Amino acid sequence: xxxxxxxxxxxxxxxxxxxxxxxxxxxxxxxxxEAAKVDQEAATELFVYAFGNSLPIDSPKTQEAxxxxxxxxxxxxxxxxxxxxxxxxxxxxxxxxxKEYYDGRVRGLAQYVHDAIKVQ
Length: 120
Fold this sequence. Notes:
Blueprint: H1 5-12, H2 16-25, H3 30-52, H4 60-76, H5 82-94, H6 96-103, H7 109-119
Helix pairs in contact: 3-4, 5-6, 5-7, 6-7
């Protein structure tokens, strides 16, 4: 069992998004999970590019990263609305594990991702 699965079930197990994600991912092969990770990493790299080039959070390139992020989630896991994505953005700065994922790329990226998602 994945080390965070119990936490995920406890926090979101009764949501439509969780049920949809579980239904979809239960059919995925190892290659599917790797492809999902590629899409997620590609979206993150768009944020890294925008942040590294000091683009405003509402710039077209930064908002392209926001859309790529939402699209990757929707494509592989569950229908991610703008509102859902904004809720995820809060987690990216409040949960140390998510903050570390983004700030591990570039210090300050988690806040930038959060702000870019919130401004849409």
